[in-house]
Amino acid sequence: MAQLWGGRFVGETDRTAYDFNASIGFDKRLFYEDIEGSRAHVAMLAKEGILTQGECGLILQGLTDIQEDVSSGKLEIDDTCEDIHSFVEARLTERIGDTGKKLHTGRSRNDQVALDMKLYTRKRVLRTDELLNDLLSVLLAVMEENLDTYMPGFTHLQKAQPITLAHHYGAYFEMFRRDRQRMADIYRRMNYCPLGAGALAGTTYPLNREYTASLLGFAGPTSNSMDSVSDRDYLIEFLAALSTVMMHLSRFCEEIIIWNSNEYQFVEIDDAYSTGSSIMPQKKNPDIAELVRGKTGRVYGALTALLTIMKGIPLAYNKDMQEDKELSFDAMDTVENCLVLFTGMLRTMKFRKERMATSAMNGFTNATDAADYLVGKGVPFRDAHAIVGRLVLYCVEKNTSIEKLSLEELRSVSGQFEEDIYEAVSLKTCVEKRLTLGAPGPEQMKRAIAEGRSYLEEGTLQEQIGGIQNLQVTTHPDILAKSVETINEFGGETNE
Question: Is the pLDDT at 493 greater than 60, yes or no?
Fold first, then answer.
């Protein structure tokens, strides 16, 4: 149970206290980022003459071997180590001897874990952006296919005005587009490298922080060493953005659950995303939508927990900050799983278009258009509003709808009604007359779809920024290339 910090201590740490303090159980997820950061750090140390080129080559080769062995399953991460940093350094020293002890030169676990978490979070931001992009593609495809699929639009969960399915999906397109924009904002703001900040006050070694940052694909080094090791703003921002993603998913799921009900029957969820009942054979439950809705609270909890953890912490690093990882990992996993499943559910969901159109007609969604018709005949809007209100009351009493009333019935309420009222209050006319920017009219929707298609053609954030690894790639190309060059040149020999 040797620790990296054991020199100061004489007595053994209490086993329970050691386990309580250890983070290897969850920060082993940062293994590849720890290797990646160590490669860049060692390359910088050699460039600045702090390590010899031979020492650099030997350490790089050792790190590569450890990574390959863990990846292949030949080497298991030892849960008895205090943290992932201790594991990597211990295995390196076992394999290459005392040269491995030089890995940590000019570095603290404070700036090391800050780097690892930033590298890891950066990848997850890119992955979330990619999944949001996939969802937007599905939404846009549905919009393109449903320009004339009429349905009721709602306020207060009551039928309000006729819209199209394309218009309804377009609202969610805008929500998830903003979510992607938040990913880009977070990425650019967090993309500064904390390595070289040391424990909190930098180091006396002549580190080249700009070089390390460039190797790791950062825009540059962080500006203040105390802030570097104690900053969790980027995580809070990411969790806040993920909470917003989940809020949007939850709203959409709530509507799908309603649409899937026997009372609405607007949609049919594919069997792949539904479950049945253990006792009621007729049931087909929207469990995936319900679970996504439920897991929203889980992600909210992670955000609230991290805000609470950080609210009373003085500068600089405190052990409280170790609590950022488990809840953040869980939130990231939850959102990614929800996006994958929700997108699949949406892609395979079928729409009952006739049922949707009938619902729009039966809910007086054309009442506003009937009032507008009277305004066109010279009736003041407030009077027209009252006239149509009386018509609706009449229809409710007769269990009918405005377009089904005879012209005689209509004229008994207002003499301004003519035969052209029936065309004026048809679903097609009600939708097509709405021509303002952002409205459901076909010309505006075609414009919105074209703009959405152009937006998606810009590519994912990964494609836009270039050069940054995704979740499957564990080493920045520049670091890997420089590592290979160094190893080949010096053959792992030391210059001692």
Answer: no
